[in-house]
Amino acid sequence: MTIYRANLIDTPTPESFRMVEHGYIAVTDEGRVEGVYTTLPDGLSRYSIVDYGDRLLIPAFNDLHVHAPQYRNLGLALDLELLPWLQTYTFPEESKFTDLAYAGRIYRRFVHELWMQGTMRSSVFATSHFAATKCLADIFLLSGMGAKIGQVAMNRDCPEALHVSTEQMVQGLTDLKHYLDENGRDGLVEPIVTPRFVPSCTRDMLEQLGKVAQTYHLPVQSHLSENLGEIELVKQLEPASSCYGEVYNRYGLFGQQPTLMAHCCHTDGEEFELLKRNGVIVVHCPMSNSNLASGVAPVRRFLNAGIQVALGTDVSGGHNMSMLRAIQYAIQVSKVQYTRTNHEMAFLAASEAFYLATKAGGAFFGKVGCFEPGYEFDALLIDDGYLNYDNYTLQQRMERYIYLGDDRDIRRRFCRGKELCEPVL
Ligand code: GUN
Ligand code: FE
Predict the structure, then answer these.
(1) Contact 195 CB / ligand 1 (< 6 Å)
(2) Is 147 left (phi over 0), alpha (psi -120 to 50) or beta?
(3) Does 89 contact ligand 1 (Cβ within 6 A)?
(4) How confident is the model at residue 40 (pLDDT cuts 50, 70, 90)?
(5) If you measure from the C-alpha of residue 85 to the centroid of ligand 1, how many angstroms do you get, rounded to a whole number?
(6) What's the DSSP call for residue 344?
(7) How buried is residue 184: exposed, middle or buried, by Cβ count under 10 Å (0-12/13-18/19+)?
(8) Among positive and negative, which fits the CA dihedral 261, 180, 366, 24?
(9) Radius of gyration for the chain, computed over Cα atoms and rounded to the nearest angstrom
(10) Cis before 290 (ω within 30)
(11) Strand, helix or coil at 406?
(12) Cα separation of 312 and 63, whole Å?
């Protein structure tokens, strides 16, 4: 058992921050939270205490949608909408990942930055290349952080360098699964079935991916109803489907296994109902949706309907690896939406957006994302001394950290109870 003392802040529920001033958190040797206490119970008094003084201890962040091979394009190429953006900037960059040396160089930087930003778990799109994808998995394994790793399926309307056949994809998924069964550190790093999106995949590809997902009980991630041009294209390609989501659903890629659908900016009507019925998780990517002028996802409607929503950076549609910036954008675009819907969609409170980035996203990885008993201890120690120069309350310190904080404030990072020092990758 290890006991840490600090100002403990988390969101067991979205409505408010739970704050324990100078509290204690006991963590078992297996890396799970035993409990949070205002005064230390007698039974725990024999353990030594790691005292972090007046600093904040918060759950680490979980990025549920991010493209590792787009790391080099961060902050670039944000002058087009989705479909031309993919063809002009994104596919050419991803094509470079046929070169394993290049892939290793960029992926090491990418994983290092996740560590820097305090994102201890992520659900990642790699590229369509098996060797580079396995290389990414190996870098995660070295880092000690958790990840779902997706070799990206695409066999339609893409450059030759990104084209992968259905057989190669099925083989790649099977091989990565077996490799990570052996080496994945008890599920810390796992494969995820990743059709890029409907326009990139033939029916045969989707059908086979659905079969692999059911056979091995693998989770699924993709993109859904991000951009109006994309939705129009899907209608042309799949005229028999009643909505975009129905295409995935037909092939068992829509909630039959745990499923993440990024964006959902324009999801309504039948697609909304299907999403809800199937328990599909929406990944809200507000930075990306602003940058690519895709729209604003109806997050409040999803939440009111009981649909699970998590948060993603969607780098490099999103221009920043920090989940703090994703939280901030989520709040800000929700306020734009609030004014544009005549106050029908209430805007997100800071605690709600923080919940999306921690506990809501963490649920995809098991018991992750808050400090309730039994949860894996994924945490960040925050030194906000330079922001906290007057008599701010803990609530105010948390709000200021969300808007003004960055990676420099993170002093320690824990994943599954283990402190992760800066990875030398
Ligand atoms: N839809 C299909 N591929 C992508 C991608 O790489 N980024 C985003 N934002 N949307 C996509
Ligand atoms: Fe994306």
Answers:
(1) no
(2) beta
(3) no
(4) very high
(5) 9
(6) -
(7) buried
(8) negative
(9) 21
(10) no
(11) coil
(12) 5
